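Reviewers of the previous submission asked for a worked example of the structure-prediction workflow described in the proposal, so we include one complete record here. The input consisted solely of the amino acid sequence. No template or homolog information was supplied to the procedure at any stage.
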Amino acid sequence: MIGLRQMSKYISYEQAGVSIDAGDEMVERIGGYVAGTFGPRVIETKNAFVGLFRLDYDERLFKKNYKSPVLVACTDGVGSKVQLAGKIKKFDTVGIDLVAMNVNDMLTAGAEPLFFLDYLAVHKLEPKVIAELVKGVAAGCRLADCALLGGETAEMPDTYSRGDFDMAGFAVGVVERKKIITGKNIRNGDVILGLGSSGLHSNGYTLVRNICFKKAALKMTDTLDELDGTALGQVLLKPTRIYVRPVVKLLSQYKVKRIVHGMAHITGGGLVGNIPRVLPKDCNAAIKKSSWPVPKIFTFLQKTGPVEEEEMFRVFNMGIGFVLIVAEDFANSIKKKLTRYGEKVYRIGRITTGTGNVILK
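From that input alone, the workflow returned the following structure tokens.
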């Protein structure tokens, strides 16, 4: 009884599992990364509840203004790829994936990203880990030329197991109304150009983990001859490629002509699941599978699974991360320009009459 009387009757938030002090330290650590993404449209505020972003017209300060702006918004996550980052304690790349999954989607409408928000959920707030995650998000935002305008970190020890975390992102962009790309202009004879992926990107990782760690009993640190002696973890955590700069630059060069008729971000569902999202109902996309080199990670997964080829093309990007469907007369010049901008560009197929499907040959 004496021991009970001497015990404090109060309990703190930190004793319950959430540290306010760690949150304050985290904010201090990430400040520089966030500010490094700001452009002239961001109105800087300190300790505000919101982020502020100008969308003026007729302001000489800005490199571009919009006469009839349409805001474009999207949200996405990284999926179970975050579990692999946790396995080897490498947290500075999945933030790039997070940005890429959003801005590449936005790009399909012809929009350029303006700003980005992130949401991180963790078991325990470790300021150094969060700083690495946000460092990656900021790096992705710089690659996409958008501002990291704000975010939220939630410490939820009763929801997430020790070492677990998840992340989600939200992006807002803009496009001139008359320049919105929907796919409605796609027609028979158009050429399909594919931009090379950096690997798996951020899709299919439940299958990847099943093959690599359950079936093959591999470790993230294992080096494999099939992957040119590269550590498995290095290959699996390679960030999703961000296509914003080259595609926005390409579109800006055609002030009047609408030579890009449709675009698709090749995510979950692969080529066969994503290209039909922009196809008219009377068109098919005929894709020649031998028209680009398939990265070795896909060959390794297919053989190790084993996985049927049809399933591989349904789950993974197979080496093509983004697709442009363009007017035939401009296909060669567009290919040359995108190559000059640093992309690996392949002429992977053509639009034919059909019923809105992808035909792999």
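The first helix runs from residue 2 to 6. We consider this example representative of the routine output the project will generate in years two and three.
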